[in-house]
Design brief:
The protein is α+β, with helices and mostly antiparallel strands. The chain folds into two domains: about 160 residues, endopeptidase fold (from Nostoc punctiforme); about 220 residues, Chitosanase, subunit A, domain 1, CATH 1.20.141. Helices cover about 45% and strands about 10% of the residues. Strands 4-3-2-1-5 form a five-stranded antiparallel beta sheet. It has a three-stranded antiparallel beta sheet with strand order 6-7-8. Helix 9 packs parallel to helix 12. The longest helix has 25 residues. The N and C termini lie close together (about 5 Å).
Length: about 425
Amino acid sequence: MSNNMEELLNLNSRKKVEKKSIISMDDLRNDVVKMAEEILAKRKGNNYVWGKKGPDYFDCSGFSSYVFKKTGLKIPEGSVNQSEYVNHNLKRKDLKPGDLVFFDTAKKKGKVGHVGIYIGEGKFIDSGGGGERNKTVATAGHGVRISNLDSEKWQKRFLGGSSLEKIAVKNNIVTKSKETIKKGIDTSDKAVTVENKEKLKKDIERFESIFKYLIDVEGGYSNHKNDKGGATKYGIIEIEARKYGYKGDMRNFPLESAKEIYKNKYFYRNKLDKINDDRIALSICDWIVNSGANGVKKAQKVLNTLNENSNLTVDGIIGKHTLEALNSVDPEKFLKAYHISQREYYNNIVKRNPEQGVFLKGWQNRVSKKEDFIKNNLNINNKEPLKNLSEWIDKAVSELSPNLKEQKNENNMKNIVR
């Protein structure tokens, strides 16, 4: 996990929530899941308290309503009321990330008594505790956690899910083109048009190239005693692999599984496909993989500094306004300031925790490698997205002897900040 948890999303300090113009349901689903995950990452100790609705303590429905509120949606209080807001008849196979999932309890067999937020891959995030037994902070129950919908316990208790899309309709969310979801516009999947096919092709090319670059940077398996992330492979720490259903030894963690996490958690969830400049997309993705939401928050701080009239909320979420700022800023000025910020970030980690000094050289080399690659290999006018990336990676790797490759992988894994 991150060595500077105090810099994770500080929900108390948020001055406002970005007013979003939803481009697609995928965007909205990503925002809901990311907000739930950010609150989970921020958790310190037990934080389930009956009747609490955040920002530090939650019961189950308090958590779901708080997450939805922070992503621009309103739902009622109470799990029963939430289940009735739109029908909760979605079956397990029909669930999508961001949907609400409802369960009964030991005391309420067959009746709604608990709610969570589905995040995909059979997992959901909820705030669990002992109900009315946990009425005070002093008696707080477990709190926000990731649960497995396919476990025996939750399979028996599952009553159904509520569609995030239907909730969006009731909240009058509209697409960027002003066409409402209610009118039947297909916002879950991209319409099959020549324009969208071309964009999808470019998105895939960008992701594939960034993924290949980052795998070269991250290397293979590592389990350094001072790395708080623990066992790691391809830049994926063990706890993250478990979230996505991997149960085996991290030494055997498949590259394809890592690719799915990169694609869903890092690339699309952070809207890197919507950033115009390939250099900026690559640089932000690198820092997100290395340090989570801090990579976005530092970008927002840099944008606020460069654009004097900008007032972005520094929340680690690339919303409409952050995206607009990224697409209007001078790329070279942004990248120069962003990379300086990344170096300072690593230095500050070591100042707070000198034991992390063993990683500092690797962290700084990570930034230098990125700067050199952007300078020497990405088209400065950005006319051809990541044109030379795959060739550059293949050549660099082929020039390494087997022994150097092994040493390189070991050293690369010491670059990880969680």
